[in-house]
Design a protein that fits this description.
Number of domains: 2
CATH superfamily of the largest domain: Type I PLP-dependent aspartate aminotransferase-like (Major domain)
Largest sheet: 7 strands, mixed
Shape: globular
Bound molecules: pyridoxal-5'-phosphate
Distance between the termini: 56 Å
Helix content: 40-55%
CATH topology of the largest domain: Aspartate Aminotransferase, domain 2
Strand order of the largest sheet: 1-7-6-5-4-2-3
Strand content: 5-15%
CATH class of the largest domain: Alpha Beta
Structural class: alpha/beta
Length: 464
Amino acid sequence: MTDPLDRAMHHARAWLDGLDTAPVGGRATADALRDALGGPLPETGADAGEIIDALAAGAGPGLHANAGGRFFAWVMAGSLPSAVAADWLVSAWDQNSGMFTVAPSTTIIEEITGGWLKDLFGLPPECSFAFTTGCQLAHVTALAVARHAVLEQAGWDVGRDGLYGAPPIRVLTSANRHNTLDAAVRYLGMGEAHMEGVATGEFGNMLAEDLAEKLSGPARPTILCLNAADLNVGTFDDFATLVPIAKAAGAWVHVDGAFGLFARTSPAYRALTEGIDLADSWATDGHKWLNVPYDCGMAFVRDAAAHHAAIAKGAAYLSPSPDVRDPSDWNFELSRRARAVPVYAALRELGRAGVADLVERCCRHCVSLVSGLGALPGARALNVPVLNQGLVRFERAGATDTENDAFTDEVIRRTNATGEAFFSGTTWNGVRAMRVSVVSWRTDQHDVSRSIAAVAGVLSEAET
Ligand SMILES: *Cc1c(COP(=O)(O)O)cnc(C)c1O
């Protein structure tokens, strides 16, 4: 018999210790993974420790090393040491963290952590909050409250009467939005057909004149969604101008700050978020820039009473605790994981100064990567990163745009195949580009040089 916890510790350490030398991208095909991990449902049990060994061996070839310093795809990172360790404790403690009576310690840790996050992000102290699985569910949570509030303002009780016969809710967004907003609108029965685009400028920033124009008609239930950094180039909407226009028209303002809300934690980048605290709700992620394990997102709502009215469960048998915040009153879930505990650990490991330093380091490395890659022969940076997101395109002399689109995808694919670094692609302003997203506490200058060298190698090979 082998102790499964000891085996898990061994494999976790081996994985983390190997990050610098292992290929950054997982290489196993779906079929290879099915062969290694699948087979019929076992008829009888097996030794727990041996199962952990087999799991690590089977899954290993299909793991992406996003926990390492050279993974720049999507917006993904690894986790701080204290956050990984705290997450292990969460599983071992196994507290059902929906209510104080059921999970006293983890409920209080969540209460403390929510307060720290409001302070860290400079959000209004009266805000309520929810720890969700990610930014997607943070959007759903915040927009469920928004739906409740704008309909209440129109004299409609959505909790009692549902959406049957309710006045339609208009959702104003820009083309630059993340598609999780569309999903949230769909899930909440507000209908994609009721989403309306506001015009944007060169970097995808929402234009105030068009917003004012769209809001100039008779008042009707409206939710405006703004970006605290879009995914491609990190553009922030001009909150200080746009939010007052929307508020004057009675609209609810929601901010997608999946990673961009973290700009607020650094004196060097805080100006990008000016006026963001005027909004009504904010969604962000813990598993992106705070470097805590999946899954973890957060929603914040200025009107705590509306949040409670829209979400609280209030079943008598649950006997809510009068002077304690029960997480289930602010979240969709009842039984749930103590998701705030790794966040608590990460905030204690870093402190306010450490979070700011993490944000600033990532932004600096993003600028070096984008300028270093952009200076390679055959490469062109499409932006100077304002935050931690950049775009680089690869072009051959005399080639058409379509050929260069294919060449760009080819460079990404070949770079990833080297195992030295890992990037994803995107379409921005109609052309293909390599995305450079830096959100890991592990990324350092050496990782940046090594990744630029990997792309340089791919480009010189492509020349011959
Ligand atoms: C990642 C991301 C989301 C979705 O977040 P999940 O945590 O994956 O649900 C939404 N908006 C933006 C801008 C993002 O970068």
